[in-house]
Amino acid sequence: MNILFFSTQPYDVTYFNQANTDNAHHFRFLEYPLNEDNTALIKDETAVCVFVNDKVNASVIRQLKEKSIRLIALRCAGFNNVDLKAAEEAGIRVVRVPAYSPHAVAEHAVTLLLALNRKIYKSYNRVRDNNFTLGGLEGFDVYGKTVGVIGTGNIGAVFCRIMLGFGCKVLAHDVYKNEALMKAGVTYVSPETIMAESDIISLHCPLTPDTKHLIDAHTISQMKRGVVLINTSRGGLIDTRSVVEALKNGHIGALGIDVYEQEEQLFFQNFSGTIIQDDVLSRLTTFPNVLVTAHQGFFTREALTQIAETTLANINAFEKNEPLKNAL
Ligand code: NAI
């Protein structure tokens, strides 16, 4: 099948070519994102392969239909950027990669937590500057702390187990309870209890109309003073302006994010020679207790291999008219 890739990064080319072992498919890789302007770049492809920040709204989908696209293959798990109803109306199937190394993202959430707590980014720079002092690097024992986890699907469940391994008390909230996690020691509670009792809160639920701005001025006011907030899920779960206020007044003790509400303007691109116009992100990066990574949670060898293999398996199934187990 002829497949057009949008928002391609060099590692996509490497891993997708590797997975296309018998050269069954013909790929064209574009660095441009998919949006209303760029559908013109489609030539004779049957499928488009897109990532988290490609804009697959109703108007783009209308254009895809005009270009005879029959399949949208997401090379990611989240699908909040796709208008599924419009795709159904257009008769275009949508497939995704529902799970690819949940360990990659869960481990990244833990990385953010530990790096923030022990100020690794500061000590790295200090030692390189021959400054061997410890002032300001004080952290806390993660052992014994209460960790609140919102969303215990693939990634949240792995995160819960890691935190249990640290000797934490793990509280969780999800619309479904995971029995195996409960047996392992996780206690399901209301979101209010998570906010009120957690020393550390980590978000692992998808972005939906229900979860948009789950963390806002109101929920922050319910949290313990000094709480550490980690978000590796989707930026829209957090009302960033409220979080900035809470960082300024010390209510939030530290923030680690791998996702940001306005990330599609910035992430996966190099702006090191330009002035960033996003004042909220610029403010965030001035705080000494904020760590921002640019949506790299998924970025491990294992996850990239699985993403490419599952995406091609989805495309193969579509081509052979087989049931699409990863259809949306
Ligand atoms: P999943 O679908 O396995 O789990 C999501 C869980 O959230 C489900 O158990 C679901 O019941 C729960 N949930 C839904 N609505 C909820 C609500 N209102 N309150 C509490 N829980 C709710 O998804 P998975 O694979 O664990 O991924 C979680 C999120 O992580 C994805 O939606 C995606 O946005 C993000 N992600 C981030 C990556 C990164 O590189 N930073 C990579 C992959 C995923």
Automatic annotation (TrEMBL):
* Superkingdom of the organism of origin: Bacteria
Among the Pfam families in the record, one is 2-Hacid_dh
Protein name, per record: 2-hydroxyacid dehydrogenase
Kindly list any coiled-coil regions of this protein: none
**What family is this?**
Belongs to the D-isomer specific 2-hydroxyacid dehydrogenase family.
Q: Which residues form the D-isomer specific 2-hydroxyacid dehydrogenase NAD-binding domain?
A: 111-297
Task: List the Gene3D superfamilies hit by this protein, alphabetically.
Answer: NAD(P)-binding Rossmann-like Domain
Protein source organism: Chitinophaga fulva
Question: Which UniProt keyword terms apply here?
Answer: NAD, Oxidoreductase
InterPro entries on file: D-isomer_2_OHA_DH_cat_dom (IPR006139), D-isomer_DH_CS (IPR029753), D-isomer_DH_CS1 (IPR029752), D-isomer_DH_NAD-bd (IPR006140), D-LDH-like (IPR058205), NAD(P)-bd_dom_sf (IPR036291)
Signal peptide segment: none
A GO molecular function assigned to this protein is:
D-lactate dehydrogenase (NAD+) activity
Against CDD domains, the record matches this protein to: LDH_like_2 (cd12183)
- Record-annotated D-isomer specific 2-hydroxyacid dehydrogenase catalytic domain positions: 3-327
